[in-house]
Design a protein that fits this description.
Number of helices: 9
Largest sheet: 5 strands, parallel
Distance between the termini: 97 Å
Number of strands: 9
Helix content: 25-40%
Strand content: 5-15%
Length: about 270
Amino acid sequence: MRRSGVLTRSAPADPRTAEGLFRGAAADRVPALLAALALGLIAPLGTHVAEPAPEPAPPPVVAQAPVRVVTPVVLTDLPSTGPDDRRIALTFDDGPDPTWTPQILDLLIAHGARATFCMVGEQMAKHPEIVERVVNAGMGVCAHSRTHDEELPDKDPQTIAAEIGDVATRVPAGTVVTTFRAPGGNWKPNVLDAAVAQHLQPLGWAVDPRDWKKPGADAVVAAVEKQIHPGAVILLHDGGGSRAQTVEALRTLLPRLAAQGYTTALP
């Protein structure tokens, strides 16, 4: 720079500014770049500069499942949705059994029917593969206690609670047990209250053909047809002994009930 006839040299630019790094004569930029390297303001050639980490996404909002509202009243019929509602509920007690449960399940699947299996915890422990097959077929599971103790109301509260809650611990992950049936239908207030405390609806029946007495397949069919009505919960058995008559009766009942306009549903 020439001032008043005297040749002068501009002061070197400050390397801490963009002007100091990228403006001015090349000779002035060299010491500025070297100074910036020393100060860590720029990275050497070939250095990988990591990009700043993205802001973490907010955690997803998980909706809480609503708590089931149940009452200490034994359900014997499905709530009606209107005069054209011809749903019924098939239920099978005391299994799972390795001989009879698969046969009953095959018949239900073949006829496009759904049913609820009221399972005993001790039987579930012996046959977990059958439990899984029942669930995978879209059937329901009802708690029927751990040991099928028909004197359950006479036990202490801790035992009653453990008996009622046992079945829910033995179903496949993600399976929800929503009902409880007292062994032998022995309902007393303490058992009802204990079931409700575990958010299990007490489940009874409206149709009982007493198939466990083995009266013959024809007698089972006749008893069901005599007592059947829209909404009825039907009591049958897939465990606790030979259920050959129940299987045979079901072969007749499923197509007959369908022909009468009945559909099957879970309670």
